[in-house]
Amino acid sequence: MEGAEEERLVQCPVCLRELPAAHINSHLDRCLQAGEAEAEPGSSPPCKWPRLAAASPGSQAEGEAEDARPAAGLPVFSLFHKGRGGGQSPGAPGRRSGAGREEAAVKPAEGGAAAAAPSGASLAQKLEGKPLAERLRPDTLGDYVGQERVLGAQTLLRSLLESHEIPSLILWGPPGCGKTTLAHIIANSSKKNGTRFVTLSATSAKTNDVRDVISQAQNEKRLFKRKTILFIDEIHRFNKSQQDTFLPHVECGTVTLIGATTENPSFQVNAALLSRCRVIVLEKLSVEAMEAILMRAIRSLGVQVLGQGNQHSSSATGSSSESLEFPVYIEEKALSTLAYLCDGDARTGLNGLQLAVQARVAAGKTTPLNITKGGSVDGILITEEHVKEGLQRSHILYDRAGEEHYNCISALHKSMRGSDENASLYWLARMLEGGEDPLYVARRLVRFASEDIGLADPLALTQAVAAYQGCHFIGMPECEVILAQCVVYFARAPKSIAVYRAYSNVKECLRTHTGPLPPVPLHLRNAPTRLMKNLGYGKGYKYNPMYQEPVEQDYLPEELKGTDFFKERKT
């Protein structure tokens, strides 16, 4: 039995040598020690070699030759030593170098401007993937353009952000003014400072998602003393009960809430939550700020701007490569037009620029350009017309259900009241071109006819009703001139609020009356039955058409006799 055990061969799991079973334990110890000695400090640890593929069952001679040189052949290593290179797929020849890790390191991060494309990429490659507005989103306050009143030097909010003392904020502003970008900058800053930053969108998140984030924030604060900043985009989409979820946790500091909204927080955010947050009002970007943002985008794309005296050279444009034969130029006037037309919306401006450039590059049509001293140069030119075509129309900021809806109708009402026919037409056009329902405007004009013109021109009400009926009959865009005629008529008409003021005085009289309201005088009551006549209803009433002279008769209750509601009432 002992001779049979010695003759039985067992394969070593490290070097794959076949040895007698009695010697396998001592041999395995030597193999492991030899592998650990070969692993020198500072060198990349070797990876497992697919020895089973090299030593096939039919190649016994090769296996014996390998037994004689275990260290000089395939690498030997400890079975229990874990190296960083152990992730190589079977069958790859040789050990894995650091090239794979370097490729992973240089893989572009999402959202960065530098990650848009490598420096040698063509313009078409730079425009692929994410929208230009997303790729060029700045990461630091130094690159943030606009909003100087809120984030300028020496402002309170900028000082707090630079010191990483971030309070709970509600960012309120129109689309494309930098709300999400500011939150992105705070996120980058907080991560460097060790603060946890979580982003949710109220358009897709549910109450359970918010509770999960708050639960994690409580654990982070209790176990690691780590703060959590919660950014809620479009926070006005949360209803009142969902917003109440934040109240106790913002109050005790479990989370720092940053909400972004395009709607007026006074109407869309709970008053209790507003009292726990600081409202930051961001305004539309100025034309100068828009030009700076567009110039930054132009530089990142490597497009030259005509009109600045730049000399043409392939290296200066940054767009000459194997995939793009001609350089790309854009007129300076085109950039200025785009800065004006986007109406302070950086997202619209950048995406419009991207669309115009992509269309011209895809078309590939070149234009002779006289930009060098020696003569003309062929290049792809983007003009003002191409930019306008990319935007399709002037970008008008208007929300039929939001803040701008009420702002514009108020401006129209006040312009007609002030007899400014030009301003009246402007605000009317702002509403109609922005997509407002013409019947809504017509209803407001009917109200204006009696409230502000009244008896000074009784035909104004007829004009308003006719305008409403005309809009109802034919609709937009044909009815726009009907509304324009009515608006100009009202702006030019004389104004009188006598009826409006008198009726307001009557309502005030009723609200301030103490005790039960006075009864209707008997002589003014109707008496359709014999019983009512017997009770005195209608007794003593003088039927005015039967008298040739004015009839003296009281029509107000006894308590209000002599009251004149058309006179200014003392408050």
UniProtKB/TrEMBL annotation:
Residues 9-36 form the UBZ4-type domain. GO terms for molecular function: ATP binding; ATP hydrolysis activity; DNA binding; enzyme activator activity; single-stranded DNA helicase activity; zinc ion binding. Gene3D superfamilies: 1.10.8.60, 1.20.272.10, Classic Zinc Finger, DNA polymerase III clamp loader subunits, C-terminal domain, P-loop containing nucleotide triphosphate hydrolases. Keywords: Acetylation, ATP-binding, Cytoplasm, DNA damage, DNA repair, DNA replication, Hydrolase, Immunity, Innate immunity, Isopeptide bond, Metal-binding, Nucleotide-binding, Nucleus, Phosphoprotein, Ubl conjugation, Zinc, Zinc-finger. GO terms for cellular component: cytoplasm; nucleus. Pfam families: AAA, AAA_assoc_2, MgsA_C, zf-WRNIP1_ubi. It catalyses: ATP + H2O = ADP + phosphate + H(+). InterPro entries: AAA+_ATPase (IPR003593), AAA_assoc_2 (IPR032423), AAA_ATPase_RarA/MGS1/WRNIP1 (IPR051314), ATPase_AAA_core (IPR003959), DNA_pol3_clamp-load_cplx_C (IPR008921), MgsA_C (IPR021886), P-loop_NTPase (IPR027417), Rad18_UBZ4 (IPR006642). SMART domains: AAA (SM00382), ZnF_Rad18 (SM00734). It is found in: Cytoplasm; Nucleus. PANTHER family: ATPASE WRNIP1 (PTHR13779:SF7), WERNER HELICASE-INTERACTING PROTEIN 1 FAMILY MEMBER (PTHR13779). Functions as a modulator of initiation or reinitiation events during DNA polymerase delta-mediated DNA synthesis. In the presence of ATP, stimulation of DNA polymerase delta-mediated DNA synthesis is decreased. Also plays a role in the innate immune defense against viruses. Stabilizes the RIGI dsRNA interaction and promotes RIGI 'Lys-63'-linked polyubiquitination. In turn, RIGI transmits the signal through mitochondrial MAVS. This is ATPase WRNIP1. It comes from Otus sunia (Oriental scops-owl). The lineage of its organism: Eukaryota, Metazoa, Chordata, Craniata, Vertebrata.
